[in-house]
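Human: We require from you a protein record containing the residue sequence and its fold in token form, and nothing else.

Assistant:
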Amino acid sequence: MLRDMRDKACIAGLGQTKQGKLPGLSADEIAIWAFKLALEDSGLRKEQIDGLMTQQSYGGAGDTLKIGRELGINPKIGTSVIATGAAGAAMVHYAAMVVNAGMANYVAVVYGTNQATNRNRFATGDPESASPFGMFNPGAFAAMNFRRRMALYGTTERQLGAVAVTQRKHAQMNPIAVLKDPLTIEDYLSSRYVIAPLHVYDFCHITDGGHCVIVTTPERARDLKQPPVIIMGMGRSDALQGLATPDEALMQRIQRQSATMVYEMSGVQPDDIDALYVQDAYTPAVLSALENYGFCREGEAGEFIQAGRIELGGELPVNLNGGQSSETYMVGWGHTADAIRQLRGACGPRQVKGAEIIQCTYSGGLFDHTLSTIFRRP
């Protein structure tokens, strides 16, 4: 039963390095830095870490064997996952299952990248289903998503602009965020197109940085330094057929299967969620998630996000870290980290008062897999 995994794992340690450009540091060095920060945050000794999961970064960095040797640990379980959009969230799910099964006690899930300093390029596409049609970057799929939304539902660029403007407001209160200059809806509408109808502010901001979370059971976390952040529910679904069903793929309706799973496991519903984090390599992802995870009906997200509804203090605050368009592009890691901080009550002026339950949603690849995690305070 899905509910058998409810509340069986938690986040006991959090490490997030500086973001932006970190010249002179390799991706692996940044990952190790994040690991050390998480270890200090948890109060654990590195010898207690008996699980190590690493997400590979661009250029082949992030190999578990290499990082484990550098750290001087010899865990029971060590694995690495290729660089794909939602791999960090998937590894947290795997780690939760591992500690619940008793295969490891404390699993460190680690990511480090120097993609900005290294000037990595993301202009790639699947050679069979995407590249022959000019789809060399996931941004093209996001643009088609929003163009289709405009045609079906009359959603406007001005409505979409509320995502970027809201996230910039949140970023201005976030000491980790990279972009903090004021952004108005007029600034957004007058900015250049990258892939019409998407403007430059609709795209994520590429940065260097590192993250680590330590996953264990709530029982083992009781005597550690930080209050545990409990994993209530997890959901996942994969769309292996891609554009074989264009509307299903472009509107990311696969998220509905992930939603069914995460809500069944957690025992909560959208009305119970105090704040939402959406992995937003491109701002239309926020609209898709709001609809597919049940916060509003399909076609209504453009109107739903107006009048401050998704701002701090609004009915459903979204991406209180500033999102990937203003904080950093960390393939969803920054969203997980900020959700943890919110539930610890450690977000200062960005704190959602009384936040008890927070949901994170993630999508990776070319709209081909999606995940969600619901966290709660202990």
Notes: Residues 2-119+205-376 form a domain with the Peroxisomal Thiolase; Chain A, domain 1 fold (CATH 3.40.47.10). The chain has a mean pLDDT of 92. The chain has one domain: 2-119+205-376. The chain is about 35% helix and 20% strand.
